[in-house]
Every structure is written in structure tokens, then in C-alpha cells.
Amino acid sequence: MKLTSARIKAGLAAMAVAAAMAVVLPTSPAAAADCAQAWNSSTAYWGGTTVSYGGHNWSAKWWTQNEIPSTGGSGVWADQGSCGGGTPTDPNPAGFVVSEAMFQQMFPNRNSFYTYSGLTAALSSYPAFANTGSDTVKRREAAAFLANVNHETGGLVHIVEQNTDNYPHYCDTSRSYGCPAGQAAYYGRGPIQLSWNYNYKAAGDALGIDLLHNPYLVQNDAAVAWRTALWYWNTQSGPGTMTGHHAMVNGHGFGQTIRSINGAMECDGRNPGQVQSRVDAYQRFTRIVGTTPGDNLYC
């Protein structure tokens, strides 16, 4: 059969369409969701409200205030996926498992002396702290340390020991180096209330700071204060049998950290109210950092 010119043109057009349909064109990536208004610790949110935090949008399941958006805690927040480009931002550039927002939630009434930047600056002195083992272990150790700090300082309120009558008692004159800053100069200071001339000397020697001659640095420099607390936590067993760091990374439990800090005064039934105060703070802090407290909470 002889094809007419019109039919040939129609056939060629149909073949062109089919060829075009066979070409797989590259697809554009889906646009990332816009970020909702940033979460604010002081704002109350009703169920269904969406906020952004850490590069993700989060939807509140019920009323909440001052609870950081995460998949942990009470479960109030539901993750709606990444936003603002699809790359989650790190809410804590220092890499510490406790972000600044978590720190603020733990210590909403803290003294301005106890800065988060001072804490993160001190971490380099003991890099194994809250950085050993699984993510759960890291979070538990950070929570345990901060729970004990909370108890020792009344929620990071007190920089120095409040009972001034004790001040002259912290000079052990039997030590060859004595008390060059004065007999009453070695009272409790900082997050774990460093006291006694021999502890100031030992901490200073370990950190490369002359705290024996200048113990006042612990109450005047936030990073130094945090470093002395981490020195005790990571290297001293006190009245216990292990350091706080060892207790948490090797699964002995929070109770052993209490023993290493003030076991002679609180453990074995001596002061159950004080022990309970520490445990309550630890349980609250583990919820904030998104983990569980584990076993062996008491000493």
C-alpha cells in the first residue's frame, strides 16, 4: 500500500513522541522541608505545635515546656524529619553528649559563674570522660557527674562552701608543703567543692596549675573550676574503691559514684536523704539526655 505524505508525517511524529517518552530525564531532588520556629526552653507548647531543633522539625504530642525535642525523655516530641536543607545541625559543636540546651534545662537557676563554655573548655583535660563506651554509657556518665555536681552546689548555685566555720579546718600542717596561701584558704570550691591543701596541690599538679599557692583560681575561673571537678571524677576514689569514671564506664552503677565522693558521710544507711537527693537528680538528668539510669543506684 502506498503511503500518503500526510500518513508518513503522522508516523514520524508518533515515533518522535515514543522516543521522547523512552528518555529517562534526571529528577530534581525533593526540596527539604522548611524549619518551623526554633524551640525555646521558656515557651509552653500545646499538642500539635511544631518547632525546629537540631536540624529537624518536631511535633508536640501534648502540652510541654522546657523539655528538649528528642526521641528520648517522656516521649512528648515526635520527629517530623530533617529541615532547612536536610542536614541535621549539631546543637553542640563541642561534641559533648550534653548540649547547652540540656545543660540549661538541668540547671535553670545556676550561678552565672558556672558557664557551659567553661565546662566544655575543661573537657580536653580528660578526653575519656563521657566519651568511653556506648552512647548509653557516655550519656549515663555525663548525667552521673552532673547529678553529683548538682547536689554538691545546690544546683550550680554555690561557688564556695557555705559554712565558713569549716574554712580553717582544711589545712593539713603535717604536709611538707604546708598551706602557703593561708590556713583558711583551702575551703570547698567549684562543682565538686574541692577542699584541703593536699587536694589543691594534687589537682594543681595534675592540671599544670599552681593551686596550692593560688586556690582562689577555682572560684574565679570557670574552666579551672570545672577542670578540678573532672580531675576528682576521673582520678580520685575518695572514700570509695573506684573513681566515678570507672564506676560508670565499667557498669558498677551510680551508687558507687556517691561512695567515691561522700561515701563516708552518706553510704551504708548513714544519710539516706542525701543519697536519695543525688539519685533523684541522676534519674532526672538521664531523662534529659535521653537514656536510662541503669542498675545499682544506691550505695
TrEMBL record:
Q: Where is the Chitin-binding type-3 domain?
A: 36-80
> Known CDD domains for this protein?
ChiC_BD, chitinase_GH19
Q: Does the keyword Hydrolase apply?
A: yes
Q: Where's the active site on this chain?
A: 152
> Tell me, what's a Pfam family for it?
Glyco_hydro_19
- UniProt-listed GO biological process terms: carbohydrate metabolic process; cell wall macromolecule catabolic process; chitin catabolic process; defense response to fungus
What protein name is recorded for this chain? Predicted chitinase
Q: What are the alphabetically sorted keywords of the record? A: Disulfide bond, Hydrolase, Plant defense, Signal
GO CC annotations on file = extracellular region
Give disulfide pairs as residue numbers: 171-179, 267-299
